[in-house]
Design brief:
Distance between the termini: 143 Å
Strand content: 25-35%
Helix content: 10-25%
CATH class of one domain: Mainly Beta
Largest sheet: 5 strands, antiparallel
Structural class: alpha+beta
CATH topology of one domain: Jelly Rolls
Length: about 500
């Protein structure tokens, strides 16, 4: 802000002098006088180019300098700041890229070494395991154990640690000493990762590699112990005379433990034991299970008797090489016998027959649980029919056409009855005819079940033409064990009707 302006004029020389008497000015005025933005003033102030509070005198001093303008200096400062930021960011990006590349390289090397060591574990398991300090030993058989150097030794007591000529018993499992190199210790984590691959490929080999053979319970061999004492010399081999030279030679050790030659036996002889020594013996003299031997001749002339049992015939004496025949007798008499069997047959002293234990009127019945067995049944049949085929005139009075009689043998039996008649119109007119079966022999009893029917005979224009065939049937339930009669009855309420070819049947069923 300007407080006072003193103006001096010199018209003679054409100049005007202005003296400014001032105080502090605002940032907006300062920026306008310097030709920069208000925001740039803060940057210039930080660089020491201008100082707050702003004054017109400092602004005049800055503008009179033979340097780049303040706006140019601000721009240069801004460019410099931007370049420093870009440089810093570029360096960080390069550093991050180097870290990423180094990490990828490290992972690739780790994976590569893991695969290589896993392959070595599978191809050279012993050497690779020893290098890393693992307890690799191949499984041993029951008779020997495979040791580190490939030799085998029987499962015997180990030599004393103090005296090699003295045997000592093991007092407990002792871990096998393991020594490794510094390099093996450094890359052992990689070997551990390789073992994961080995386990995925061959679980048994993995167990052999990582299990201490001394502490293992699966039969893995431990470290090789010291060599045992030298054994005694072996016995001399067989002499030339002991060697078999002829077909049929048999060498044995006699009672003096001397190798001798057993002479060749004769034809048909057998090798037996006499006084604890093998010897050839004739078959007729051999004692087989306490029985005298039988010669081939005796066998050829031998015969045996085959006896026919109950219900069988034939048999008798038969020689070796011959044959005989056994037959089955069939019964000829009716006797009480079995009431069930799987085959439905029975074999008695008189021969073979169907089951004979069933009662009168019973049937053989098959069930999966019991096979063939007697079952309650009552079957009887009676029938009667017209034999002369003559016409019978029917009127309103009930006519007995025919009768039948049956006698059930069991109280639970039922009787099925059925009747039939051919009907004609006797007066060449439409007629009604009733046909019924009753429980007497004279059509004076009761109707059997629903065995009744009424039929309209339609005129055919000729009385001799058939008007219809009537059939009736019914069931008489549990009529008892007495004789039972049934009658076929016919009647017509009006006119007259003729019937012909009638029949009546009764069937007993339990």
């Amino acid at each position: 802000m300007l407080d006072l302006i003193l103006e001096y004029s010199y018209p003679r020389i054409g100049y005007k002098f202005v003296t400014l008497v001032m105080k502090n000015i605002s940032s907006a005025q300062t920026a306008k006088l310097l030709g920069v933005s208000v925001g740039d003033l803060s940057t210039l102030e930080k660089q020491g180019i201008i100082h707050s509070p702003y004054s017109l005198e400092e602004v005049s001093r800055i503008k009179s300098r033979q340097y780049p303008t303040l706006s140019e200096e601000a721009a240069q400062v801004g460019i410099q700041i931007q370049q420093e930021v870009v440089t810093t960011l570029t360096g960080l990006q390069k550093f991050k890229k180097r870290i990423s590349v180094l990490s990828l390289f490290t992972v690739a090397v780790f994976v590569l070494f893991t695969i290589i060591i896993a392959i070595l574990f599978n191809i050279f398991p012993g050497q690779t395991s020893d290098f890393f300090g693992y307890y690799y030993r191949f499984n041993a058989s029951d008779d020997s154990q495979t040791l580190v150097n490939g030799s085998e030794s029987p499962n015997v007591l180990s030599a004393s640690t103090e005296n090699l000529n003295v045997l000592q018993a093991a007092t407990g499992p002792v871990e096998a000493p393991v020594t490794t190199s510094v390099l093996a210790d450094i890359i052992k984590p990689v070997a551990g990762a390789s073992l994961i691959l080995v386990k995925a490929i061959n679980d048994q080999k993995y167990e052999q590699i990582v299990t201490n053979p001394v502490l293992a319970t699966g039969g893995l061999s431990g470290p090789q112990g010291p060599a045992g004492p030298r054994g005694s010399d072996g016995s001399d081999g067989a002499s030339v005379g002991d060697v078999m030279t002829t077909a049929g030679d048999t060498l044995i050790r006699d009672s003096d433990n001397t190798t001798v030659r057993l002479s060749i036996g004769s034809n048909d002889q057998v090798l037996t034991i006499a006084n604890g020594m093998p010897a050839w013996t004739d078959l007729t003299n051999a004692n087989l299970s306490g029985n005298a031997g039988v010669t081939n001749a005796n066998l050829a002339n031998s015969a045996l008797t085959i006896a026919a049992g109950n219900g069988l015939s034939g048999g008798g004496s038969v020689s070796l090489g011959e044959s005989t025949t056994l037959g089955i007798n069939l019964t000829s008499s009716r006797t009480a016998g079995s009431i069930s069997s799987n085959s439905g047959l029975e074999l008695s002293g008189s021969g073979l027959s169907l089951l004979q234990g069933c009662g009168d009127g019973q049937l053989l019945k098959w069930t999966d649980a019991g096979g063939w067995a007697c079952a309650g049944a009552d079957v009887g049949h009676a029938a009667s029919y017209n034999t002369d085929e003559a016409m019978t005139n029917i009127s309103f009075v009930q006519t007995t056409l025919t009768t039948v009689s049956v006698t059930p043998s069991t109280s639970t039996a039922d009787v099925y009855v059925t009747g039939q008649a051919e009907v004609f119109s006797g007066s060449d007119e439409d007629q009604f005819l009733t046909l019924v079966i009753e429980t007497t022999n004279n059509c004076t009893g009761t109707t059997v079940g629903n065995a009744t029917v009424t039929y309209t005979i339609t005129s055919k224009g000729d009385k001799d033409k058939l008007g219809g065939v009537l059939v009736v049937s019914g069931v008489d339930l549990n009529p008892g064990t007495s004789s039972r009669s049934y009658s076929l009855c016919a009647s017509t309420p009006t006119g007259d009707t003729d019937v012909q070819n009638w029949r009546l049947e009764a069937l007993v069923i339990n």
